[in-house]
Amino acid sequence: MNVTKTKICSSCDSEFSCGDISVENKCWCNDYPPIFNLSEGGDCLCPSCFQEACEDKIDAYVETITTKNAHKNKAQHLPKTEKLIEGIDYYLEDGNYVFKAWFHLKRGSCCGNKCRHCPY
What we know:
The chain is α+β, with helices and mostly antiparallel strands. It has one domain. The chain contains two helices and four strands. The radius of gyration is 16 Å and the shape is elongated. 12% of the residues are buried. The mean pLDDT is 86. It holds the Pfam family DUF5522. It comes from Flavobacterium endoglycinae.
């Protein structure tokens, strides 16, 4: 039985459904990189606010990456997620996927294809 919980976003005060609370780690937010600590304040965020917060935090982290320190980045050591997330891992341009620096950092090395956002 799928059991969801209705929550109020601590950022925008909108109602949203928290994933299947009857099964551990079955919430929609588990598709996102585990980059937040619960101690960072607030309760759950709605999907829109959560994605925006993830994008902001990742973008701030990516700004600290240089070609010299890219091979020692934290992203490649995070648990792997199977789902690519638009706005975090890639964006669409003229119907094509353009992978962002976060995607490349998670992979952990340069593929040699001269990608636009390659941090290596």
